[in-house]
Amino acid sequence: MQPPSSDVLRGTLDLLILKTLTLEPMHGWGIGQRIQQLSRGVLDANQGSLYPAFQRLEQRGWIESEWRITENNRRAKYYRLTTTGRRAVGTEAASWRRYVEAVELILQTT
Asked: Which one in 31, 81, 88, 106 has a CA-CA gap of 20 to 30 Å to 18?
């Protein structure tokens, strides 16, 4: 039997990115690392999933980006929440919790 996938689903990834950015603006690689760190290594937000999520969130107006120099003196795109994005964190978290509760109800059914 294979272990459950640690890949993060799209809607969940969007929420995790938003929540991570409530702490401070970050570059893409740092966001992925923070998600992995806060989940104690359970969730793997790989770069192939993160960057399409950043594009979705920018299109919705929930995050903005700008090029900056990192602490390692490299150029990287930094992301930050917009005012609309800060409001979306609460809305999206509530929606996610309803989804989890619904799935849990189905799983508990015998």
From this structure: 106
